[in-house]
Amino acid sequence: MLGQAVPPHYDTLILINSDTPVYFNFISGGRFQMGSDSNDLMYEPDEAPVHDVVITKGLYLGIYEVTQAQWTAVMKNNPAIFQIFDDSPSHPIEYITWNQAQIFISQLNKKGLGNFRLPTEAEWEYACRAGTTTAYSWGDKMATNGKSEYTWANSRSFARTHPVGTKQPNPWGLYDMNGNVWEWCQDWYAAYDSEPHTDPKGPTEGEMKVFRGGSWFDFYEAHRSANRHKHAPDEAYAAVGFRLVWEDK
Asked: What is the pTM of this model?
């Protein structure tokens, strides 16, 4: 099928059109410790304090980052920088703003396939950790002998994006949660507090939107499950894309 390989397991398949699928896994709700602290030698101050978060409802999360093929099927254009390769349709869409991601989602929601949205920052980290408490879902070391089986990172990415799903998935069957491209979240960026939270959605207003996960451009500390980054919602970069949440109509 156009744009991405069929994953070995998926819970739901949505067809944007006859040859453009989007695959989702169901992520059950649960409790986790969000953020990191000085016990992690690579931690950044805005990852602290570690705080308890409960996700009360399960969600269907995209197994892959949204690809150039999927974007083009909906938007009839392709703003990606890395569209010059034979396999570019299977690369993640990038060089899109948070605002453009919202337009894509709005257009997709008009198709009557259910409700699509970005994950919240808490949902994203919960899914990225996939029940783990280590720096990465596969452990505390990014790579062995300079090679990672799980992420495209600088300097092993050849300074470009790669087809989605070409590294190993995390324990919940999600690919490229670390690396390839950063992923926009729904939330406005804000500092953490130490209070426990249930289904947090961030502040109602702000100046910067959150994106998570690291990219082909970034080194290992940015790929940790707890790492956070932010930019204005009208800023686009060749290292930022997104993945979808689907809610049954």
From this structure: 0.96
